[in-house]
Fold this sequence. Notes:
Elements: H1 2-10, H2 23-27, E1 30-40, H3 45-61, E2 70-74, E3 78-84, H4 97-103, H5 105-116, E4 119-130, E5 149-157, H6 162-178, E6 186-190, E7 198-205, H7 208-236, E8 237-247
Antiparallel strand pairs: 1-3, 1-4, 2-3, 2-8, 4-6, 5-7, 5-8, 6-7
Amino acid sequence: MRRLTIFCLLLPVMALFINNAPPEEAKSEMVYINVHEDMVMPSKVFEYEAACKKLKKLCVDNGIQDVEWLTVSLSDFRYWHVNRISKLGDLDKDYFASLSEKIGEEELNKLWDEFDQCYTTHRNFTAALDKNLSYMPNGFKVSGKDNPYTFFQVVEFDARNMSKMKDVAKKIQNLHASVKSPLHFRMYHSGYGEMGPYLLVVTSGKDAVDVHTRMDKAREMMGEKRKEIMKEALAIMTGYSEFTGSAEPELSYGVVDIAKASTE
């Protein structure tokens, strides 16, 4: 039961994009992101990361300013490359057009070929950070250097229960706030490119012990009320999974580069 009860406690890494969100985004309750996911073969991890560093170096050396991405490595050898978008139409743009103009299409394609040798599948999907359902009392700035460990939870549900799930998520957020929970979290909605609706819950910490210690403390503080909300959540959940990851500053580029981003 511990795996499922975590939902009531929490309900990456990607929220680092909030550090540098434009003013109009800061006022909005939703921040939209695009994620490119590569399923990297374990035997090709070093080659893959070398290709990532080469891409970053090309952008740095050529002064490319119209792209940015945050790279996150996951525990199952998936790699996420995340960037902000303002609308779905942004997905149709050639993201590396400026770099291609600088170094030539042929050279850039050679680098893409290096990536292609390292993964079995890849895809794109979108998500939206819902600040109204997140619990971040100290603000949305996160230090990837100080909090490299990221814990992800995927809560699946039927589309017909979207409203009910949001209501439950709001109750959970309010409960955390009412007891001044030490466990802070970000809530994402699934978007384009996914098979069905889910909520992605993200929390960060120094390591696994740090996150789970705060998780246990939050559970204790919320007491019986947590169990009541848990029953509501279980009644409409159709699936649950969890995984861990780590932000990769050496593979990230632009204003979201953890090594250069502002922290608190």
